[in-house]
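hey can u check if this looks right to u? its 151 residues, i copy pasted from the old doc so theres a chance i mangled smth
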Amino acid sequence: MPDSDIDEIRALIERTRDAWNRGDGAAYGACFTADASDVTYYGTVYRGSREIGRAHQALFDSVLKGTRLTVDILEIRRYGGDAAVVLTRGESSKGTPRKLGKLVTYTVVRDRTGWSIAAVQKTQHRTVLERLTHRMQPSARPSASDGLGRR
């Protein structure tokens, strides 16, 4: 993958973080395609950049008011010339998070205007349940300790 594509994809994820940190739902929604899907770790599904922006503005004005988004990009994998999957670890919090407890998978696509998010799936990492499962069923353990090829 050309370095310029990696830089542009990283910049897209950074734009989502910056919009979140400003509490700017319109800017957050603008990072998504018109037909995007955003699946929260609660299981709520938002569809399309407008709905994602509108819903997040309502959240930024209430329960997410004053939160900051921390995002650590773990990997970017390209699929063809105009699609990639981005795996991140992150957290939203009012201060410095104690841990980055959410795993987020972005499907990003490129069109004539640049890279946008077509889908995002957020999952709360439940380490206690994960450890219990792997202790009870060792063959279910990923090949690496964090499931990402890292030990």
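The chain has one domain: 3-126.
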